[in-house]
Structure formats: structure tokens, C-alpha cells
Amino acid sequence: MSLVKTFNFQLIPDPTGLLSVYETGKGVDFEIKRVYCLSRLEANSTRGYHAHKALRQVAVCLSGSCRFVLDDGKVRESVVLDSPGVGLQIESFIWREMHDFSDNCVLMVLASELYSESDYIRSYEDFLKEVGNAS
């Protein structure tokens, strides 16, 4: 089973630009409680390096591109996001890393929960222990 689960959002082009639509129930199968964006990212920077216990997310690259690495403790997969019409679903207990940001990358994340530090697993070793116990 693949860790990389993507789906397409509605994109509506017109002569003045592109309207991208993100709605609960249309690709996003959870109530969106929080939205945040990462921008002005340095090309050689990396981010993420954590998992969540309960939080589910959908990542969308609104501009530019970046590469995600997803890991469930057994399998590691990589995917490049480079379209505002593609969402990457990231479930709980999936380790995530973000790499290879383009100069103009703007990454939006739709989250199922409000921010909670206690939901984070920030050590890969702790993550492996958590998913080992869940098996």
C-alpha cells in the first residue's frame, strides 16, 4: 500500500487567472480546522521531521514546488508537489519531511485539528517506538 495519496482539487481558469477551490468533502475528508502556509523558503532548507498522533493534513503547493518524504516506520516514499490542483493527504502516525523548495514555493496545509504541541512526535526514534506499539 502506498503512503502517497494525492487527489485533484477543482481549478477554474478564466482570462484573469486561476481560481483554486479547497472544500471539506471535496477531496478533503475531514473538517478543516486550521490552514497555514509556508513561504519564502530557502532552496536548501528542510522542514518537517515530525509526525502527529491525531492530526491529519492535506498539503498543497500553491506556487513553485517541493518534495515530501513520507514514512510509516516500514516504508519511505517521496513525492513532488508542484500544482495548486493536487493535494497530498498525510495521515496521523506518518513521519514527514520536506525538501527541495523552489525559489517561489508557497506551501499550504489544511489541518484537521488546531495546533497542539502534545500531538507532535519530534524524534524519529520515538516515532518508531510509537508505530511499533501500534502494530
From TrEMBL:
It comes from the Bacteria. Pfam families: FdtA. InterPro entries: QdtA_cupin_dom, RmlC-like_jellyroll, RmlC_Cupin_sf. The keyword Transmembrane does not apply. CDD domains: cupin_QdtA-like. Keywords: Plasmid. SUPFAM superfamilies: RmlC-like cupins (SSF51182). Residues 5-131 form the Sugar 3,4-ketoisomerase QdtA cupin domain. This is FdtA/QdtA family cupin domain-containing protein. It comes from Devosia neptuniae. The lineage of its organism: Bacteria, Pseudomonadati, Pseudomonadota, Alphaproteobacteria, Hyphomicrobiales.
